[in-house]
Amino acid sequence: MDAPTTLVVVAAVAAAALFGVAATVLVRLVRARRGLRRAGLPTGPRWVFWGAVLYFVLPADILPDPVYLDDIGVLLLALRTMRRTPENDPERLPD
Questions:
Q1: pTM, rounded to two decimals
Q2: For residues 62 and 86, which has the higher predicted lDDT (pLDDT)?
Q3: Would you list the DSSP string of the chain?
């Protein structure tokens, strides 16, 4: 293979790997929300969850879709926000 073909193949493999990571984080986000709701625990603002899912699905991104780093960041931020409970929130600790 020549150099441009090799570069395209490497870029396609990297894009596929990043998509796999983003899809895995999306599945973890959905499972975390489902588990928290089944346990009767607060899941944080509903817009955080749906906003992260929409950002992942919609084609309008900050970075183009072959680069899923922004999608992964938004999903991880939503996952972190949902898993934060009032007991663990440093802003709500008693003085």
A1: 0.62
A2: 62
A3: --HHHHHHHHHHHHHHHHHHHHHHHHHHHHHHHHHHHHTT-----HHHHHHHHHHHHSS--SS-TT-THHHHHHHHHHHHHHH--TTT-GGGS--
